[in-house]
Amino acid sequence: xxxxxxxxxxxxxxxCPVKEEILKVAERHDLPVTFVANGGxxxxxxxxxxxxxxxxxxxxxDDWIAERAGPGDxxxxxxxxxxxxxVENGAHVLGNTxxxxxxxxxxxxxxxxxLKQHLRETGEDRGFNRAFTRDDRSVFLQALDRVCxxxxxxxxxxxxxx
Length: 162
Prior knowledge:
162 residues; Rossmann fold; 6 strands; UPF0178; UPF0178 protein E0D97_15290
């Protein structure tokens, strides 16, 4: 007999500006949250919140998340290569500004990331990011709520088909 698996929200937590928003939505949907970082996470007594500290190497947090996130899970990250890996694994992926990455959109996101990296390397772009606004938070909250509902439905359907 197979074990049922509920949705989990995985967060690439290093420099994530929407941790509080994630916790609000997770509580509303009764979903566990796993924050993954190289350090600097605040401990929580909430049993639905898990903090994972990974070694301080370039892709340790990304590798940890990509190895675990799959269908029915939600991943929050601004890291496009991590987003691509998680989309490939069937997870629902959302950027910090509420931009959802799907099988249909991730190719363009990877191409744009590579182009911007090339422009920074050649000095054509200095790589400045605009400030994160209250509107960005609002858009993120709405997008995360929508994605969590979809992920929960996917997990429930999978459980019924076991």
